[in-house]
Amino acid sequence: MTPSPPGAWQPTRRGVLGAALAAPAAAQDTWPDLARMALAPIRAAAAAADGPVLLKSFTTGGGEDFDRVHAEVAFTYDNALAGLALLAGGERALAARIADALRLVQEQDRHWRDGRLRNAYAAGRVHAEAPRSARPPGWWDAARGQWLEDGYQAGSAAGPAAFAMLLWTALGDAPFLRAAARAADWLEGLRAPAGFRGGTIGHEPSPDVLPWVSTEQNLDLAVAFARLGRNAAAEHASGFVRSMWMPPERRFAMGLTPEGAVNPGSALDANLWPALAWPGQGFEGALDWVLARHGLPAGAPAAELDGLDFNDDRDGIWLEGTAQAALLLRRLGRGALAARLAATMARHRRPDGWIAAASIPWLTTGLGTGLRPGAADFLYPARGHLAANAWAALTALDASPFDQAKASSR
Length: 410
Prior knowledge:
Number of helices: 15
Radius of gyration: 20 Å
Strand order of the largest sheet: 7-8-9-12-13
InterPro entries: 6-hairpin_glycosidase_sf, TAT_signal
Distance between the termini: 43 Å
Oligomer: single chain
Number of strands: 17
CATH architecture: Alpha/alpha barrel
Strand content: 5-15%
CATH topology: Glycosyltransferase
Number of domains: 1
């Protein structure tokens, strides 16, 4: 759907599916259906590979620059999240295929040997005997007559590496724990006076350092370090996250700017994830902040929201974040609104089974990729998105990436 512009909300007639899902009795029935629906294309893509595999992040096929640049992109974060969704859905062997692929690309990087992970790799089968399969994605530029790679995709941010660690530690096999420890070694090198820096952007051998410090990424690191028993690093990351809590507004700041100033911007994940990771510690109030300032239609009461935007400009619905909010709503006993958001996820499922990343062609985030200094050029498209399906599946299964890792059958 295309949301109403800010201030233009009016009560509207809802579809039969949405109305049914909004009822508390029906809400109990919708989660198994959403889990099957969201997990099906992930399961099929992983099963088709017959071995370690990285899954493509977005559906492509149009004629825009996005389609060319993302034709073979498998983002590390998206794949780690997909592995966690498969694990939550009982598909341990398929989750291990993704985890093993991430282990192989870490080991076989064409340049780095320090445990870092790149933000993205070429989608497809990763072969232990063919190191060249562990490469950053790219595309052929006919006008230039050369193969190109995106500097963000070839770079290494802290958050995606932390999510790989969450998958590896959730599985718990010795090779995965060794890979997680190697990643942690590199991540600890990003330590700043407060928290951990964002990572690097650009190509080897001298990528640029990302000097900002992110609330969301430090939350990821706090959980990942703790799972490995690296308590000092975990406390350094969690201490930073807690320092970003803004009591008068009962929400989190986004982090620190490159200059060290607090970035007071409103980010959905930075406000929802601490309450998921650290339940009962007083951070649940951030959910109401998010609903009031990210919810769509703009101006609607919380109980009548259809979805949430990445940031507070509310130009469209971010389906991945909408799923995150639905999971927290479920855990806080607000099932009717959670089911209403589930109906939105279902409405944005494409015929091929993938849920769109955004409800509008190009959803703004207010963030930059770092490739154009000062430009807020990080956008989400209305394309099928692996992470949207993964979060929808996790929400439907009442599973969080930050839940205590549980031993699972080998």
